[in-house]
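[Meeting: bench + compute handoff]

Bench side (C.D.) handed over the final construct sequence. Compute side (W.E.) agreed to return the predicted structure before the next meeting so the bench team could plan truncations. Sequence as handed over:
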Amino acid sequence: MRQIRLLESDCDVTVAGFGDRPEANIRFVELLRQQQRASLPRKLLWALKLLLGWAESYYWNQYEVVTAARLLSDTAPDLIIANDLPALPLALRLAKGKPVVYDAHEYSPRENEERWAWRLLFGRYNDALCRRHLPQVDSMLTVCQGIADEYARNYGVRPLVVHNAPQRQPLSPSPLDGTSIRMIHHGVASRSRQLELMIEIMNHLDQRFTLDLMLIEGETEYMQLLRQKAQHDPRIRFVDPVPMSQICQRTNAYDVGLFFLPPNSFNYRYALPNKFFEFVQARLAIAIGPSPEMAALVRKYECGVVAESFEPSALARLLQNLDPAGLTSLKAASHRAAEELCFEQAAPIVLSEVRRLGGLG
């Protein structure tokens, strides 16, 4: 949506994607997902293709790709932005030699490497798509330097880094209430993220601390497990999620943005997610583990605390030592950082590439 907002006033934009039409000055093509469950023989055929390394055959016979190619066959774009790897081969074909900008949200060849079945079937598949198609793109973006370096090392490309930051928000740090330290975590309830560790952190903190979990229910059973683990601690609440556009305003009332993500995969190790920048724009102090991309920014802007390890007690010790003056100082540092860690700083990179490749001057 930030790319759409950036380009809609100066370009004739067509957006193709799943779900509802974005509210913007665009032409929208709704792509289709297969509604019927695939039969067992078809699943076995897909698995065989993946095991044999037939990446192109697997890709071009997927229902979503076949229907998208048909729905977009009459487009004649001057430039295409392909968001994430599944869009890239199709974008290159539809471009017919015109420029393609590839926006890689994560490091695709190791996207879900913590799952052995994914590694077996899709790790090599994503690698094959990258090896074949990345050399064909005219420009490439990704979300942090660690991921950009890995793409460069393995595929010889040089992605530009565009942080996944929201637009600058007209907010100020909320005052402390004098009796509690209000912490918030928001995101998807995914088992691989080990969100239960943040519940464990609360076991090491005194009664000043509260934790609200604003979670999208990605996995029902896991969400139930989290509720069960938290049920004996009245300081932990589960609050309803809000639309992405409202997250910063909703979380501005808190004091600390909490994100503790053990590096059980390459992408988790180098995570620099939207929620980090939303914490900054909400003017919160930030509490994290030693995730290198996030830690570098926290240390640069002095806007939070970074644990020495991914043991919950390590982060809890730092939080426990916060006093009102220190917490106020960290929130003020986020307020200053918000001027730089926003989409307005990243937008010129995207706009420059579109203008350069699209001949807009």
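W.E. noted at the follow-up: The chain has two domains: 2-165+344-358, 181-337. C.D. will use this when planning the next construct.
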